[in-house]
């Protein structure tokens, strides 16, 4: 029953995926995962078929999660999208949204200017198809890798390798710094490898599969090198995590993924495992605070439940309520697109409503782009769970 | 190690009910689920016992229960527990604002989208046929471009049913203007009615074609949420009674019921792990210590004091058919099946006998613990519920969700 067999024939056409697809619920333009995925894939195997509504799939993976037969429906869609674009010209918009890492590197010299430029150019971006309403992330003044280099860690015999990913590296480095602080509080030293590149998730969703594969090869080689030495790899971004351990296996044939995937952890899950082994630092200070929690779809897809919720439950005083209101709608860069913005906001509307009705002004979630979308749609502050874990450790010593 | 009181394997109706009953008893429960179960396909109508051997309709579900054979799961569970389970199910529905009607002493014959009647026991209030039975004139309302619901076919076939033949039928259509994009399904119409604007627009369109006081047969479109808000608003605005039919997948009634039960479980502290593929178990001295999921990344071990195995039958993945044998993959429990494959199926079309194949499954004691061929309990702290049980053909006798509820409940009460 492993999920990466990509066999469309396992589809029994039961239609459960349609009932669970947030895009289908939000727009009639999408024919739905079953039609676009497995049904057409059977035809694609024999002929070059073009499904115009394929562009609406956001790769959120709710179809995969509902499927009783283990068909990786969303991945079939991504493969079909790549095939579609194989001999077709790409839009500048899709190129820009897929190459966040390149863009960030270009802007890295002067992030202040880049942010200013971005504000100024929202009109221009709109012209090429990026919504002028969407919550595009700003560049941080210093990237995570810069901050990390200047940080003096205490050295410990036990070490973990951190895969920061583009969002933490360029847009939200504080999450990475909070992660390092939490590891240090658990007597672990963090290694960050310079050679890591974008996991490829933004490339895959826009059909740049070949480039994504190049990135994958580079990451796989580094990840494998470290896990071979016995170091666990940790991510704080659930979409990076899903790509590195699962989608690489579904999309490509690269040796070694299955081996390192055994030792690749989501940060929250890693801490819970430490707890199971009796070695988590449980000197948690009381936080008498109330938050909402949003479970990213790409976390739910990983078959490990909601480790963030379980982890935060260890902190005394903390009241975290799971919004449990489905997909936020952003799906990486889907909601940034001008022609998808309204769909994305419609998908998230249930979640926004739940959050607003809760009266809580801050939402906790692992995924960076979910946090952007929730901040935008529900007008609240947002945090990564590890920020609260760090805060609680600090409160203990006060 | 994190240890739970109970790990439930499978998130179909049997697993959801087992988890619900277990939390009600104050147990700490983890539910390992894969996919969203048969509910969204099969539907939220609860059959208990529709047909007896030989294809004779049971006078009532109760009467049907009295006549099942010794190997039937109902026989093991026993009448008191079946009654309690139904009461418990209805209690949850009531609490969650989506009450079900019906009881064991009455068969409810409900209309299907094909214009036939189907016997069942419990239905949501959107399928209440009280007014339909009384009405002299019935309106059948269809939606332009909606597939799988043909009002004139329904009207025509109803005329052939003795109890419905005397009624007068009127067929009307409205255009939901949903034709852009893909084919229209009942799910699309239900989602349209979920929105304020859709509901208002639908009321306007309906007002033009149906008279106040009518009884109106419709496809299952009264919203996708487990609530009667859409039904009540429509009925109030138009002064009509609406009756939803049973319909093809994806099932709206099943979707509502599933949403409601999952919400109930989460509210009551059940930890639900999605995409959890249970592959193996660790058994020591006749007791299960843990089950192990097989992720794309790695295995994860879930420890508990007791386990409820509710992972469905051949369809759900709980039983696997291999040449000449049937396998239960997690505990490797024995499934007695004729080695001659030919004997598995009853090949006569429209037979009045159940399918031997459909009756294959796990043998259990009255506590739902798995038994070997000699009737000895194999695992003391494992309890089986739902479609993987031996001795019934849900499709033939119309008992699927009833067995799921009763056995899920019984499993949780036996822990
Ligand atoms: C088309 C159709 C129409 C039907 N109509 C009706 C009706 O009108 N009325 C009625 O009463 N009944 C009906 N039924 C029957 C009814 O739906 C089923 O009998 C009942 O829902 C079975 O419930 P279950 O929980 O035992 O199994 P399922 O709903 O199959 O649930 C089993 C769950 O376990 C999961 N699972 C399997 N293997 C594993 C694993 N290794 N690890 C973790 N999870 C696993 C599956 O993915 C699934 O989610 C219908 C069935 C079908 C197919």
Automatic annotation (TrEMBL), chain A:
Where does the 4Fe-4S ferredoxin-type domain lie?
A: 2-31, 46-77
Q: Which organism is it from?
A: Pelosinus fermentans B4
MF annotations from Gene Ontology:
4 iron, 4 sulfur cluster binding; metal ion binding; oxidoreductase activity
Q: What is this protein called?
A: Glycerol-3-phosphate dehydrogenase, anaerobic, C subunit
Keywords from UniProt, A to Z, are: 4Fe-4S, Iron, Iron-sulfur, Metal-binding, Repeat
One annotated GO biological process: anaerobic respiration
Q: Which SUPFAM superfamilies match?
A: alpha-helical ferredoxin
Q: Which GO terms describe its cellular component?
A: glycerol-3-phosphate dehydrogenase (FAD) complex; membrane
Q: PANTHER family in the record, alphabetically?
A: ANAEROBIC GLYCEROL-3-PHOSPHATE DEHYDROGENASE SUBUNIT C (PTHR32479:SF19), GLYCOLATE OXIDASE IRON-SULFUR SUBUNIT (PTHR32479)
Record has Transport as a keyword: no
What the entry lists under NCBIfam families is as follows:
glycerol3P_GlpC, PRK11168.1
Automatic annotation (TrEMBL), chain B:
> Which Gene3D superfamilies does the protein's record reference?
FAD/NAD(P)-binding domain
Q: What is this protein called?
A: Glycerol-3-phosphate dehydrogenase, anaerobic, B subunit
Superkingdom? Bacteria
Q: Which residues form the FAD-dependent oxidoreductase 2 FAD-binding domain?
A: 5-403
**What does the UniProt keyword field contain?**
Flavoprotein, FMN, Oxidoreductase
Enzymatic class: oxidoreductase
Q: Name one GO cellular component term.
A: glycerol-3-phosphate dehydrogenase (FAD) complex
Q: Annotated Gene Ontology MF terms?
A: glycerol-3-phosphate dehydrogenase (quinone) activity
Q: Does the keyword Flavoprotein apply?
A: yes
| Entry EC no(s) | 1.1.5.3
Q: Which Pfam families match?
A: FAD_binding_2
